[in-house]
Amino acid sequence: MFVFHVLTFAFFVGVLAAQEHADHPSDSDSAYNPSVGHDPQASPRAEAVTTVQEGSNVIVKLDCIGCPFRLRTEGEEVWEEPPRANALMLNFSRSHSQDTLLLNDCQILPLRGPPPFIDAYQTPANVTVDETSFMITVHQLNYRLGKAEGAWASYGLSYDHSIRPAANPNNVILDFDVIGWSQAAVDDPAQQMVSIEIGSNATVMIIGEVNLVPRPPPYRGEPTNEYPFWCPDFLEPTVDYLLSRPRHPDPPGHTIFRRYEWDGFGRKGTLSHGWAALCGWFGWAVMLTVVAVVVPCLTLCYGLYRLVLHIRKSGDKEYGSEEREQLMGDEEDADETFDEKKVIDEEASLPSLPTGKY
Fold first, then answer.
1. How far apart are CA 221 and CA 248, in angstroms?
2. pTM, full prediction
3. CA–CA separation, 86 vs 64, rounded Å?
4. Cβ-count burial of 81 within 10 angstroms (0-12 exposed, 13-18 middle, 19+ buried)?
5. Which H or E run contains 303?
6. Phi first, then psi: what are they for 296, rounded to 5°?
7. CA 187 to CA 228: how far, in whole Å?
8. pLDDT one-digit tens code per residue, 282-329
């Protein structure tokens, strides 16, 4: 009987392990192997711009000059020293509604609401045509399907997004400049940015010419966000932001998204971020309970304050009326005294009559 229970327990453990493996495959199971289906040595190097579908989907391989490079292998991640030349893969595509532009499945044109969090895969700069084709075929650049665990890592971007008019008055040019990512600032003077001409046909957006162009000065990158004193953990995001926020405003027409300024609660240092962070840390139920208690208390305090003011004003009015009555009484007494004195003076001024005659 004991052996039966042991075998049953082992069977259930095996089933759970198999299910866990199916739900969370290892890196080696889903790792991108460049030797699958082609010979990388025989494949030419991919161009900077690869057109997947004319007018609706373009892959841009943006060289990331001076950026560190992390190679993911089975069981370990290695930061190369010195790092090899590398690039960021940017997938510009048109939405299903055909009226918005997406970058790595995040809407960037038109921008609505807060700037989106955009991630991008980092690859060697000499990635081949076959490797790029394989990434497109297996939808590795479609982020809405989830990030693929493979040899190349994905990082969050900081960027400068701006719109300017094109030579064709019906078109606009979108300039997308990567100014930083999770591990480094992209601040090399030779760094380029992506320039895309966007046209439209009725309600359909069309991706036109795509170029890599020099970054216009001045560079507006990411300042440091270190501070030389201790503070509680829950204040670190706000302190980081306040000490590292740029001292210059963003240029007109530019939307600059610096990754360190934002988190899941919104833009750090703002009232909405503080409220969302409190609700996230302490829970909505607790915060609603606090609000349910604080708001009535504040209302009661305000009512008492107004009542005290009313009582004071009423007392001032009564005191004023008493003063007025006293003043009126003093004036009447003064008038009576004046009249009596006047009569006495008149009587004194009259000539005395001779009384002996009569």
1. 11
2. 0.64
3. 6
4. exposed
5. helix 284-349
6. -60, -35
7. 25
8. 676 666 777 778 888 888 888 888 888 878 777 665 555 555 556 555
